[in-house]
Amino acid sequence: MTKEEQEQEQIDNELENSQTSDDNTAKSHGEILKQQICEGQEVYKKSPLSILVSSFTAGLEIGFSYLLLASLFFFLHGKVAEDTVFKMLSFVYPVGFIMVIVGQSLLFTEQTSLLTLPVLNKKQTISNLLKLWGLVIFGNLLGGWAMAALLVWIGPELHLFDAETISKIAVHVTDYSMWVILASAVLAGWLMGLLSWVISSSKDTISRIFIIYMITAVLSFAGLHHSIVGNVEVFAGLLVPSSLSIGDYAAFQAVALLGNAIGGAVFVALLKYRAFVTNIKYN
């Protein structure tokens, strides 16, 4: 057995021996890590069709956040200063995330760190990770496109919001340099990776809902770029008269996805995993 194999065996033994806490004790780092790796492995075991359907469902459901964003923006427009309105949207932004995450649909940004951990633990390959990411992203985007098309039609018909609202939100999301969007998306991916990690430490649904609401509200209030909600926001802007082009949409989407992936995979999965491994090596 090589030194690397011995180290991996030691890591796996430490994870296996991580104590399961009782209802009154907070979960340990090792216990959360073990749960995250196991959950990630379960996703890898699902059929491609199941993953595609689940991620498509998540893309649809996240659209309810956009429905509320646009409706609230339209309702408050002219009554409250526009910069204040954008901050107030953080009150309704988390709704779609609660539906998706509590409902166990596959959302790329919530799965990024989760799916990376089995690779770091040498249970999956980078190739498998990239294939799974691609499938989840495609399903999320497809669902988002469908929901955006529906809301662009039904919103004005129900007098919830108008084309100007759709255009303003889309321009607001994309009105930054690509470097700013990349850095913003890294922070957003970091937060979403932490969301997945912290949820694993909670023991009941109410706590999970509170955690989801708190973290995604912070994400919205800070104006950080989330690739899947942003997909609905910007794609909807393409479907109404606006200054956006398909090139603008493609550039935004590519940069936001890259930033979210870096944030979740590096700043959560890698750092959390290495903290556990380092603790083993030096104890």
From TrEMBL:
Origin superkingdom: Bacteria
Compartments in which it is found: Membrane
Mode of membrane association: Multi-pass membrane protein
TM ranges: 51-76, 88-108, 129-156, 176-198, 210-229, 249-271
Region (Disordered): 1-26
Gene3D superfamilies: Glycerol uptake facilitator protein (1.20.1080.10)
Biased composition (Acidic residues): 1-15
Keywords tagged on the record: Membrane, Transmembrane, Transmembrane helix
GO molecular function: formate transmembrane transporter activity
GO cellular component, one term: plasma membrane
Protein name listed in UniProt: Formate/nitrite transporter family protein
Organism of this sequence: Marixanthomonas ophiurae
